[in-house]
Design a protein that fits this description.
Arc Repressor Mutant, subunit A, single chain, 213 residues, 53% helix, alpha+beta, 6 strands, 10 helices, 3-stranded antiparallel β-sheet
Length: 213
């Protein structure tokens, strides 16, 4: 009986190995709360286990590592293995076209944003790009803008964060500061259009009654 108990204990996985198995089986990022529930432990322990597992994989020269992404943890391939892993695209090519990527970039930085607003920025229609991004789960509908016509608002998803290795939208790179000269030019153009509109409105408005003697 003693030998059976010792064998049973020797066959048990370490907590780090258990976390590794959970992350591998999940595939997608798992939130802290989800991992804690599965492993029946506190979230603080999960954080420590993730750090320990990451250090262990690094010291062993593993091709995998633990990455914090989309508000959770995921088992991913190391950057050094990217060139080899990228060859998988020869089997399933999921690359986005340049126009679709441009549309995704606008949504990522300007969300929530409507289709007309995207088209105004791009200068072309974006139905196909939006359909592709929705199909891939990179964007989703966030509701409707409270203006005339109530157009749909679009934003990015957790899939977007995972695909681009981001923990949150705060990790997006900062856009370059707007050129003051360009901003002044746009403001002047807007003011000119506003002036034309005011003039047109004055012409269309009925003349005031002449003052009676």
């Amino acid at each position: 009986m003693m030998k059976e108990n010792e064998s049973s204990r020797q066959g048990e996985l370490s907590r780090e190995a258990t976390l590794e198995a959970v992350l591998f089986a999940a595939g997608n990022p798992l939130p802290l709360s989800g991992i804690a529930a599965v492993m029946d432990c506190e979230e603080s322990e999960v954080v420590e286990l993730a750090r320990s597992l990451q250090a262990k994989l690094t010291s062993e020269g593993s091709g995998l590592t633990v990455q914090k992404v989309a508000g959770g943890y995921q088992l991913v391939t190391r950057p050094e293995a990217y060139a080899t892993v990228e060859r998988l695209s020869q089997v399933t090519d999921r690359h986005l076209s340049a126009p679709t990527m441009e549309t995704l970039s606008i949504i990522a930085f300007k969300q929530p944003i409507t289709k007309p607003e995207i088209e105004q920025l791009r200068g072309v229609r974006v139905e196909r790009a939006l359909a592709k991004l929705l199909e891939l789960g990179l964007i989703c509908e966030l509701g409707r803008k409270q203006v005339i016509g109530r157009p749909i608002l679009y934003g990015t998803t957790a899939v977007f964060l995972r695909c681009f290795g981001l923990d949150s939208l705060d990790d997006l790179p900062q856009l370059p500061a707007e050129d003051p000269a360009v901003r002044l030019e746009l403001e002047a153009e807007a003011a000119g259009q506003s002036g034309k509109a005011d003039s047109a409105a004055e012409k269309d408005s009925p003349a005031e009654d002449s003052a009676k003697p």
